[in-house]
């Protein structure tokens, strides 16, 4: 984990304003009709959009969201994957605690569905605190995704769990899946515990 300065969990919603201006949102139809005469660009867009170019892809008709976040998975080499189901009652996640061995390298994988329209500049923001004191913050640019009937996913680069007696204990994590347009696709809270060993 890095030692970046951290804002409080209440400020998790979005990152401070920067000079970056996201591109204007376009529908799939608008994208397909742009530069139609450019053969190489047309093929690139077909590859990017896949089945979405033949019609609107809707995986969950009763869910109006464009991004449906399904699962958070903790990935550690040579260990079984641990996952949180993000499709149900999020308040129950506080009762489920991941145990992480101190000093181990781990990744987080987010699994999600994109439907209806392309989403631009997806971001995963995570802020971690211990005993109410912020200790870590990370923001990962996930990217832009076209709608697909299949599950899509993003895996963070490796992070190293802290080690040492003072770092052991329970941590609270506030996670947010957002995008360039500051849409909140999902916000949830979960916990993990740093231990000397996996079963200690």
Task: Characterise this structure.
The protein is mostly beta strands. Helix content is 8%, strand content 40%. It has helices at residues 28-33, 39-49, and strands spanning 67-75, 82-85, 97-101, 105-114, 119-130, 133-145, 152-155, 159-160, 169-178, 186-195. Strands 1, 2, 4, 7 and 8 form a 5-stranded antiparallel sheet that branches. A 5-stranded mixed sheet has the order 3-10-9-5-6, with no helix packed on it. The longest helix has 11 residues, at 39-49. The model is unreliable at 2-11 (pLDDT under 50).
Quick take:
By secondary structure, the protein is mainly beta. It has helices at 28-33, 39-49; strands at 67-75, 82-85, 97-101, 105-114, 119-130, 133-145, 152-155, 159-160, 169-178, 186-195.
Task: Give the topology, please.
Elements: H1 28-33, H2 39-49, E1 67-75, E2 82-85, E3 97-101, E4 105-114, E5 119-130, E6 133-145, E7 152-155, E8 159-160, E9 169-178, E10 186-195
Parallel strand pairs: 3-10
Antiparallel strand pairs: 1-2, 1-4, 4-7, 4-8, 5-6, 5-9, 9-10
């Amino acid at each position: 984990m890095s030692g970046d300065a951290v804002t409080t969990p209440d400020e998790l919603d979005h990152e401070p304003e920067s000079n970056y201006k996201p591109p204007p949102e376009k529908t799939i139809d608008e994208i397909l009709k742009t530069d139609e005469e450019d053969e190489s660009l047309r093929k690139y867009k077909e590859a990017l959009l896949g089945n979405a170019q033949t019609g609107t892809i809707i995986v969950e008709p009763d869910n109006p969201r464009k991004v449906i976040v399904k699962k958070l998975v903790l990935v550690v080499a040579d260990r079984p994957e641990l996952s949180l189901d993000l499709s149900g009652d999020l308040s129950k996640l506080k009762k489920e605690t991941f145990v992480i061995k101190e000093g181990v390298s781990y990744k987080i994988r987010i699994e999600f569905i994109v439907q209806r329209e392309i989403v631009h500049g997806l971001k995963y923001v995570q802020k971690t605190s211990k005993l109410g004191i912020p200790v870590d913050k990370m923001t990962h640019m996930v990217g832009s995704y076209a709608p697909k009937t299949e599950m899509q996913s993003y895996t963070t680069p490796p992070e190293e769990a802290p080690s040492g007696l003072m770092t052991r204990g329970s941590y609270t994590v506030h996670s947010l899946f957002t995008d360039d347009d500051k849409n909140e696709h999902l916000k949830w809270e979960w916990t993990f515990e740093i231990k000397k060993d996996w079963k200690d």
